Amino acid sequence: MNDQVGDEARLAALHSYQVLDQPRPKVLDELTRLAATMFDTPMAAISLIDRERQWFAGDVGLGVPETPLDVSFCATIIPARKPLIVPDATLHPRFSSYRNVVGAPHLRFYAGAPVIDEDGYVLGALCVIDDEPREVADREIDALNIFAGQAATHLAAIRTRLRMAELGDYLARTEQREEDLIATITHELRTPVTSIQGYLELLCENEELAPYRRLIDPIHRNGQRLVTMVDHILAGTRPHDAPLPEPVAPIDLNTVVTAALASCRALAALRSEPIDVRPAAPVMVRADLARLAHAVEQLLRNAMLFTPVDRPIVVRVTDTPAPAVEIIDRGIGIRADELPYVFDRFFRGRHARDQAVPGVGLGLAIARAAVAAHRGSLQVTSDLRGTTARVTLPATG
Fold first, then answer.
1. What is the mean pLDDT of residues 276-297?
2. Spatial separation of the C-alpha atoms in residues 380 and 318, rounded to whole Å
C-alpha cells in the first residue's frame, strides 16, 4: 500500500511538468543527441515513466513517441534509483525475452541513469542504446549520471517557466511562444529525419544489405546535413533580444570539451595532424552542457575548416585567471579588415567565399550568444600565423 501511495505521488510530480503528449522540448532533444554522440550509439532517449507507458521527452533513433512498460528497460530504474547497465540483453535473465530484444530493433546494449527531480522523485531515465553488445567504463557511467542530472534540471526549468506563464508573466509567455515555435519546427521536420537517421545507421551495419550501401550512405549523409542545417539556422536566427537559458548546473569544462570534440569526430578524422587536447584538473562552471558544448563545437569547426590538415590545432582548458577554453590554430588567420565583423550574422570572409568553405556565417554568432548567456565572454584574435578563440566563464565559487 505504501508503494502504491509513493507511486501516486511520483506520478503526480511527473504530470506537474506538463510535458507528456506535448511537442518535445528542444533542449531535451539536444541533450539526447549529445549523449548519443558521446557514447557513439544509434539510439538515446529521455524516458518518462507514466502509469502504463514510457514517453520519450527526448529521442534519437527510436522513431516512436512512446512504448508500453512491458518492453521498458528504463522502468526498472524507478524503484532501484541507480544506473542500470546491460552489456548484452540476450544474456540478461529479465530482458532476454523482451520483444524489442528478440525482434526489431534487436536491442542489445542498454545504459541508463535515473532522472531525479529536486523533490527526490524518479521521473524516468536518460539512456543510450545499441543493437550491438558493449561494455562501459566507470567514467562513462559518471558521464551518464551527469546527463541525467542535466535532464532533471531542464525539466525543472520547463516547469518553472510554465508556472510563471500561468501567473501572467509577460516575459515567460514570450519565451514560451518562441519555444513552442521551435518545438513545432523540430517536431515536424527535424524529429522525423533524426528517427530515419537512427534506423539508417542500423541498416548500414547489416551485412546482408551491403549491396545497397551506396544508396543508403548518401541518404544518411544528406539527412544528417539537413538536421544540422535546421538546428544551425534556428540557433543563429534567434531574435537578438530573445532570452537565453541561464547557466543551470555545475559542469567540468573538460566534459564540455570532450562533448564538443565528439560532435566534430568526422571532421577531425580527416586531419593528418591530430588535435592537441590539453585538459586541466576539474574546472567547474555553472552551465547548460548541451548549449555550451555546441558553442565550443562551433569554434572547433571553424579552426578545422580554416587550418590545413597538416597544421596544429590546440584545445586547452585552464582555470587561470578564470575558467576558460582556448582553441589555438595555425591556419590562414583572419584579415585585419574583416576581424571586426566576424560575429555578425551571415558574415563570410573573402577566403570562405573564394574557396567555397562550407557554412552560412552563423557559427561565431551562435557561439558568442551561448557564451554570453553563461555570463561569459568570447574573444577572437588573429594574424597571419593563425587564430585564437578564448571562451572565459565565471567560476562556480
1. 91
2. 17
pLDDT tens-place string over residues 152-165: 999 998 888 887 77
- Residue 315 C-alpha cell reads as 584545445
SS3 of the chain: helix, strand, coil, percent, to 5:
50, 20, 30
Assign 358 to helix, strand or coil. coil
Is-contact 358 380, C-beta < 8 A? no
* Phi-psi category of residue 106: left, alpha or beta, with phi > 0 → left and psi -120 to 50 → alpha: left
Higher pLDDT, 246 or 249: 249
Neighbours of 64 (CB within 10 A): 8
Could you give the CA distance from residue 92 to residue 79 in angstroms, rounded to a whole number?
19
Contact 138, 111 (CB under 8 A): no
pLDDT band at 246 (very low <50, low <70, confident <90, very high): low
Residue 392, C-alpha cell as written in the block: 572565459
Q: Say whether pTM exceeds 0.85.
A: no
- Count the neighbouring beta carbons within 10 Å of the beta carbon of residue 394: 14
